[in-house]
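ok here's Protein N-terminal asparagine amidohydrolase, seq below lol
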Amino acid sequence: MVFIMVLVLNGVIQDERPINTHALFLEHPVYRETATQLLSIPTKTVSAPGLLYVCQREMAAVAPHDRNVNIIGSDDATTCIIVVVRHSGSGAIALAHLDGNGTDEAVSAMVARVQELAFGYPEGRIELQLIGGFSDAQGYAEDLFSNIMQSFHKHPLEIDLTQACVGELNTIVRDDINWPIIYGVGVNIKTGEIFPATFPDKGPDLPLRNARYFTGSHQVLDIYDSAVGMLRIGPFNYDPLRGVDLWLAQSDEFILKHLSTSPDVEPPHFAMQVRATLRYIQDNQFPAVTVFRNNNPHYFRRDETTGCWTPVRY
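and the structure came out like this:
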């Protein structure tokens, strides 16, 4: 198959994708300006009502007229990158929290979902925004940026990069250590406004959702069924994790050092969240049997009164 290379940078179609973030910012200073604008916005703490939260190795797509969602977002991205794809005409948005696994499939799925939701809106372009991924010592985020750019560059549609708050632009030095400036973003689905954000409530089934990437599942899971307006988790299986008891017996410092790609700069709840996930895996070694009975997904509907996700009982 021959792909048409149609990544658009600063309004110009590119023959080659940028080799790294430094080259991108050198050749296209406009991305420094847009990143500076994003970084100047105060971080908002977003509460659960009206929120569609996307975890690591997940994606979701939503249209502006969706009555169940006001904000779509993700946080806790250190070496990960949050990817936002938006159709400028319809306002349809897909957001993913990518870590290098399943990137090609996720990129194709995000663009396809946005196109579906934009059906009937002939005017508009596909815009791409990348946020997160600081200048870490191991270069994980730089490799991920390259991986994401490659996936979008070989996509047959014209895709316009409008924001790249990544790498050096999302890095601050404290005590000789590089830190991310923005760990998360929210997107207002009505206006398309993107802003730095933190999410104390990350939605239902969190240990189950996190168990997927701890146990080596490489797929990026689409967690929202926009046709019925419901959050949808699974069904999926994962391999049993050996030595869970040993991990749980370790100190928070040990867990941080050995289970994080960036132990110096993780948010304070990292070890607590890992422990909750490990306990879940310990209790549910075969989720296809104990969690997703009859192979049914877990569905959650927006509660009219509280605005939060509540389980759908069958």
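fwiw Residues 7-312 form a domain with the 60s Ribosomal Protein L30; Chain: A; fold (CATH 3.30.1330.200). kinda neat tbh
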